[in-house]
Design brief:
Layout (H helix, E strand, L loop, with lengths): L9 E2 L2 E5 L2 E5 L2 E2 L9 E7 L6 E6 L10 E6 L2 E5 L2 E3 L2 E2 L3 E6 L4 E6 L6 H5 L5 E5 L2 E4 L1
Antiparallel strand pairs: 1-4, 2-3, 3-5, 5-6, 7-8, 8-11, 9-10, 11-12, 13-14
Length: 136
């Protein structure tokens, strides 16, 4: 499927799913070397025959790339880490609450970062499931 809303390339975005909807947040714009506050909602309907795919641009996005997202409740996700810019790590966290017709992204109290995490040039990690992440 070609989605006109997603024609400018970006990488290192976050994605999460709930029911028949995919949400894409943030990312690194390859063309402009920026991290715009992208937020897309891709709804997939599966009627008999061909699927219907619709993409909506939402305005509540945040500027983030290379972060980790984990699901903590059925409708709640947490974004941890990532980058604002190439050389500026994101030391804050956000909670994303997804209701049927309401999406809320709020800043969440960050964990007490260890000196290794605070001063490292890069970091990486993974969602371990059930609201647990691994950072290195």
């Amino acid at each position: 499927y070609v989605l006109p809303e997603l024609q400018s390339g970006f990488s290192f975005h976050l994605s999460l799913t709930r029911n028949d909807t995919i949400y894409i947040i943030g990312g690194h714009s390859i063309e402009m070397n920026t991290r715009p506050p992208n937020f897309y909602k891709i709804k997939i309907d599966l009627p008999i025959g061909s699927p219907a795919v619709n993409c909506y641009v939402l305005s509540e996005g945040i500027s983030v790339s290379s972060a980790i997202v984990t699901q903590v409740k059925e409708n709640e996700f947490v974004i941890i880490g990532g980058y604002h810019y190439d050389n500026q790590k994101r030391m804050i966290c956000n909670t994303i609450n997804l209701e049927d017709n309401k999406i809320e992204i709020v800043e969440k109290e960050a964990p007490e970062w260890t000196p290794d995490i605070k001063h490292a040039k890069i970091w990486f990690g993974s969602d371990m499931g059930n609201g647990v992440i691994l950072l290195g």
